[in-house]
Amino acid sequence: MKCKTVTLRKRKIKNGTQYSLCLDYYPGYRDNATMKVITREALGIYIFAKPANQQEKDFNARMMKKAAILRNQRYEAIFNENHGFFDKNRMKGDFLAYFKDLANRKNIKWQNVYKHFERFVNGICTFDEVDVDLCRKFMEYLLDAPQSIHTNRKLHINSAAGYWSTFRAVLHTAYRDRKIKENPNPFLDRIECIPTIKEHLSEDELIRLAETPCEEDVLRRVFLFGCLTGIRKSDITQLTWQQVQPYTNGRMYVTTRMQKTQQIIHNPISQEALELLGEHCEGLIFKGFKEKMLQGPLQRWLAAAGITKKITFHCSRHTMGSLHVEKGTDMAEIQALMGHKNITTTQIYSKLASDQLCKVVDKITLKRKAEQ
Description:
Blueprint: E1 5-13, E2 18-30, E3 37-48, H1 54-83, H2 95-104, H3 108-120, H4 132-144, H5 157-176, H6 203-211, H7 217-229, H8 233-236, E4 244-246, E5 252-257, E6 264-268, H9 271-276, H10 296-304, H11 315-326, H12 331-338, H13 343-347, H14 354-361
Antiparallel strand pairs: 1-2, 2-3, 4-5, 5-6
Helix pairs in contact: 2-3, 3-5, 7-11
């Protein structure tokens, strides 16, 4: 909706002794934050309806002049918006407030990037400050930034790369929303990731772990459920029974919007995974789960099962992906189960299928067939 005119008007208040000044917008404009159509704006300026002396007349004249300035500013901003001119006043707006609101509507990763950027700019940044030079300096900051928890350690290069990619998405969104005049992204380099080992449990290790008693039953159920479904911890711990429902084929399905990617998954779950959910209850399914359980209790459980690998909770997701590859599950099916946007992400798990690789390397030999 495009506003055509902005009119300064007076409205009587206080038994007609004063006027309140306001702006009327015709036919109105839509507020991008609230999506409401605005047709009137009170300026918070009051004048005398019947000035009794010269002092009151002079006061009215000054206030009317200020109101007229505000009216002209509003009209200029709307004119610029309607005709593609960039509003210079908008450039003085708070980029940090915009970034924070955007991050809060996304996920924890965006919020972490916001915290780093807020620290980088010392809590102050306007839209007109967001240029190529500032962005490059923020990239340098990320490459040397401390971790949030272990502040004596630097961010891993892959974490810095992920944060930098998210920040560039913020820039793209701000440019699309016409908050910044130019998009710095074409002039910015990427931070290259380095390959990492995605540790996972073998089939035998997973079975041994399931057979081993755990001091925290809810930890056992959450971790094994992750191994069977590939759902991330952030999504598992927020599951309710409303998200677990039977489908037309009689199987039970989990439906959830993943916090990290905002992708929706609607996946069937096995009977064993269903049993790990426990009894039907109100609220969260895995009540009582605490992050601190992923330290001592998880490591003691792994040790009791004879597992010496460095296993974190996210390894449950890697376990599901790699075991499906070893079982010969189609890549497209694994992609759907794990909620990957791109199948190249899923194909990483093919590198983890060690049993298959062992069989492959034996195909090439230095011996004649008769000698084998």
